[in-house]
Amino acid sequence: MTSRLNPYLTFGDTARAALEFYRDVFGGTLTISTFSEFSDQEAPGADLVMHGVLETPSGFTLMAADTPPGLEYTPGSSISISLSGADAAELHGYWDRLSEAGTVSVPLEKQMWGDEFGLCRDRFGIAWMVNIAAPATADSGVSSNDGVGG
User: Fold this and answer.
1) 30: which of 76, 111, 112, 139 lies 20 to 30 Å off by Cα?
2) How confident is the model over 16-26, as pLDDT tens digits?
3) In what residue span(s) does the Glyoxalase/fosfomycin resistance/dioxygenase domain sit (predicted)?
4) What is d(CA 116, CA 132) in angstroms, rounded to the nearest whole number?
C-alpha cells in the first residue's frame, strides 16, 4: 500500500451520524468499530465510535472517531477538508449537500484566480473548501491550478 494523506475527524459523540451523513453525500462503504468491541461492553461510551472509515467510489477516504470516554472534546478550528477537481457537476452536488443546514462563509462562485471556490461549515461544524477548476482555454491548453487561490 502506498502512503496517502486523508483527514481524520474527531467528534464529541456524533461520529456515527457524521460518517453516515458523509456516506449519503459521497456514497461508498462505511466501516465502524465501537469502543465496546475492544473493551468493556458496559462501560460508559461503549457504543461510541472508536474508529470509522468511509471509502468512496471517487477514491476519497475519510476517517473519524468519537472522543474516548474520560477525555475532553475540543473541536478543531484550524483544519479544513479540501475537495477540488474539474468535474463541476460532481463538485456542485457535494457542495449542495455539505452546505445544506450548514454555514456558508464564501459562496461557491468564480474567484479572481478563475476557478469556482466556496467555503462552508457543514451541520457538524467541519470546514469544507470546494474548488472547481476553470475549463482549459483554447490559447493555453491548460486550466488554472487545482489548488486553492494560487
Assistant:
1) 76
2) 999 999 999 99
3) 5-130
4) 5
Sheet with 80-85, edge to edge strand ranges: 80-85, 127-132, 116-121, 103-110
| Cell numbers placing 122 | 457543514
* SS3 per residue for the chain: CCCCCCCEEEECCCHHHHHHHHHHHHCCEEEEEEHHHCCCCCCCCCCCEEEEEEECCCCCEEEEEECCCCCCCCCCCCCEEEEEECCHHHHHHHHHHHHCCCEEEEEEEECCCCCEEEEEECCCCCEEEEEECCCCCCCCCCCCCCCCCC
